[in-house]
Amino acid sequence: MKILYIHGYNGHEDGMTAQMIRNARPNDTVCAPAIDYTHPLDACRQIVDAVNIYRPDAIVASSLGAFCVLHEDFGVCSVLINTALPKDMMKIVSDKSMLAELDEMLYDILSNYDRPRNEFVYFVFGDNDVVANNREYLKSLFSSDGYDHTYVKEMGHALSKECVTHELNHILNEIAFSAHVFGNERDFL
Fold first, then answer.
1. Which carries the bigger pLDDT value, residue 187 or residue 53?
2. Closest CA to 47 of 76, 81, 82, 15
3. pLDDT at residue 185 greater than cutoff 70
4. How confident is the model at residue 184 (pLDDT cuts 50, 70, 90)?
5. Nearest alpha-carbon partner for 30 in 65, 48, 49, 57
6. What angle do CA 40, 145, 148 make, to 5 degrees?
7. What is the DSSP letter of 159?
8. For residues 123 and 142, is the Cβ–Cβ distance under 8 A?
9. Which ranges constitute the DSSP H helices of 10-90?
C-alpha cells in the first residue's frame, strides 16, 4: 500500500509522525513531501501535485495538512488527524493574508460540504487536543455520506505512537482490504 503523509503547520516531511507511520507499516511505502504553508492555497496545490506524483492508496494528514486535504477532492481515502481550522491557526499565526486564505478555504468547504465526494474520509481526534479541538463541529458537518467514521483517542494534538499502532493501522488495513476486494471502485463506501 502506498500512503501519502501530509504534515501540519511547522511539521516536517521526516518528522516524528512520518517516522512512526513508517515504523508501524514496514511493508508499505510512506511518502511524506515537504509542504510550505506560507500560502495555504499554494499548499493545497503542492498536495495536489504530491497526489499526482505519488498516486497513493491512502492519504494520512494532520492538523493544517488535514484541513488542506479536506479542502480538495482527491478520489483517495483520507485519514484526517486533529484537523485544524482557521480559528485554531489564529492562535499560532499572525500573518493576516494567511488567515484570510484559510477563511476563504473554510468557506469553500462549507459551501460544498454536501456535494458527493469521490473518496471516503476518516477523522481521528485527540481527546486532549488543546490546539484544534474541533471534533463536535466537524462531526456535525460531516456525520453523513461516509463521514461517520470517527475515532477518538486519548492523546493531545500530536499523533501518539499508540494511535498509530492501533487506530491508524486499523483504518489503513480497512482501506487496503477494501481496495483489494473492490479495486479502485470506492462507491461501495
1. 53
2. 76
3. no
4. low
5. 57
6. 85
7. P
8. yes
9. 16-24, 40-54, 64-71, 86-89
Domain segments of the chain as ranges: 2-182
CATH of domain 2-182: 3.40.50.1820
Confidence tier at 142 by pLDDT (50, 70, 90): low
Q: Starting at the edge strand that comes first in sequence, how are the strands of the sheet with 2-6 ordered? A: 29-31, 2-6, 58-62, 77-81, 121-126, 149-153
Q: Report how far residue 9's alpha carbon sits from residue 158's, in angstroms, rounded to the nearest whole number.
A: 12
Q: Sign of the CA dihedral 148, 104, 92, 34?
A: positive
Question: Alpha-carbon distance 122 to 172, whole Å?
Answer: 10
**Residue whose entry in the numeric block shows the C-alpha cell 458537518:** 141
Q: At what angle do helices 40-54 and 96-112 cross, to 10 degrees?
A: 60
Helix (H, G, I), strand (E, B) or coil at 129: coil
Phi, psi of 123 (to 5 degrees): -110, 140
Grid cell, residue 179, equals 481496495
CB 104 within 8 A of CB 54: no
Question: What nine digits make up the cell of 77?
Answer: 481515502
Q: Rounded to 10 degrees, what is the CA torsion of 130, 134, 136, 141?
A: 180
Strand partners, 126: 153
Grid coordinates representing 172 are: 489503513
